[in-house]
Design brief:
The protein is built from six helices and two strands; from the N terminus they run H-H-H-H-E-E-H-H. With 165 residues, it is mainly alpha-helical. The protein has one domain: Orthogonal Bundle (Arc Repressor Mutant, subunit A).
């Protein structure tokens, strides 16, 4: 017979496995169903994330590629194709940074802002409403709290912290 703490650890790991598998499924469905929600605007969830990041007040003067990649928690390489498509479609532009002439900033264009605010955001808001059906404000607050806690732990692992084994 296993000691009580071993049983508890086995149960914890089984729950952890279920939790991470559900997060994986949610991420996949967010990409699939989220892209479907904004596809009529020619956007994907990755493009929606970039436009959302650039629409924030603190990004009005633009963001460097490295800064944007850090904010979105993606690699520069993964971001390059998304930026290229958004630039091709006229939603963003690259401008020289006035503070550092060697650097380039990504900025949302007027066209991109119109697509974001007028066309995409209402569809995104409707998507959020449908995805969060039957969630109370408290449910959303608690979920966000725990996801932020998990994100902090995972970022610590990403920056050199080690998982216990």
């Amino acid at each position: 017979m296993l000691p009580v703490d071993s049983k508890a650890q086995i149960a914890r790991m089984e729950l952890a496995n279920r939790l991470f598998f559900r997060l994986y499924q949610c991420a996949n469905l967010l990409h699939k169903t989220g892209s479907r929600a904004v596809e009529s605007e020619g956007l994907t969830t990755q493009q929606w994330a970039v436009l959302g990041a650039l629409s924030r007040e603190e990004a009005q003067q633009g963001m460097g590629v490295n800064e944007l990649a850090r904010y979105l928690l993606v690699s520069r390489q993964n971001l390059a194709g998304v930026i290229g498509r958004l630039e091709r479609d006229g939603h963003i532009c690259m401008e020289t940074d006035e503070k550092d002439r060697r650097s380039r900033l990504i900025k949302m264009t007027d066209t991109g802002r119109m697509v974001w605010l007028v066309k995409a955001r209402p569809k995104i808001d409707a998507y959020y409403e449908a995805a969060l059906d039957e969630f109370s404000v408290g449910d959303i607050t608690h979920t966000l709290h725990y996801l932020l806690k998990l994100l902090d732990n995972m970022q610590r692992l990403d920056t050199g912290g080690e998982a216990e084994g």
